[in-house]
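Appendix C reproduces, verbatim, an entry submitted by the partner laboratory led by Prof. M.T., so that reviewers can inspect both the input and the predicted structure.
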Amino acid sequence: MIDPLHTLRLAAVNIDGVMLNDSFSPVIHQFVTARGGSYTAELEAGLFSQSQLTAARTFAEVIPTPLPPEELVREYLAERAAYVAEHPVHLLDGALELLAVLRGLGLRTVCYGGLEKDHFDRYLGAHAELFDGPGYVCTNDFRPGLREITTELFGLEYRQVLFIDDVARVAEQAKALRVPFVGHPSHYPHSHQRAAMERIGVRHLVRSLHEIDAALVRRLDREAAADTVWPADR
């Protein structure tokens, strides 16, 4: 008989960068540099895990453009479509095994991200039975979405939900809310997300989804109960 977890009840996993490969960082980097911009940590922070229009406005503030935000979004999505046509989106190594670990420990699981549900249906629809509740939550209208997913959709306490994400802005909100968190930052060479997570004080940073095993989840369960997931002095 599996020893049950005592505090955690739900695991929320980001779709792009956790379940699927990171198909955003390369496109955003190219989108910025091709228009004469410098791809800095500050700019990246203003673009990642924001609504599409907010990210477009941030871009326009840094790199002058005559295009309105809505047109910038359309241009970006067109460039991303061209990129993924040559570099197909795919399940990350260890993604399904991660879900097996989480569900094997008795956790419900839900997927979330900034794109519409058809993105989930296309790439994870064949595994929809591995997710609970709505299955997928589009957070474009309420980025980064930790509060809404935890309290509004599932009616849980912050300490009861484990979030797994590749973006430091999500880690920032997790820290503010004392939410259990595992960071899986991008391996893209120009990405600033790992360094940003380290500055924030993320204690559980992994390079591979295989590192998120039952032992780590049980440790997070104990830390959630004791409110020690996040350092008290940071």
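The chain has two domains: 10-22+90-226, 25-86. Additional entries are available on request from the coordinating office.
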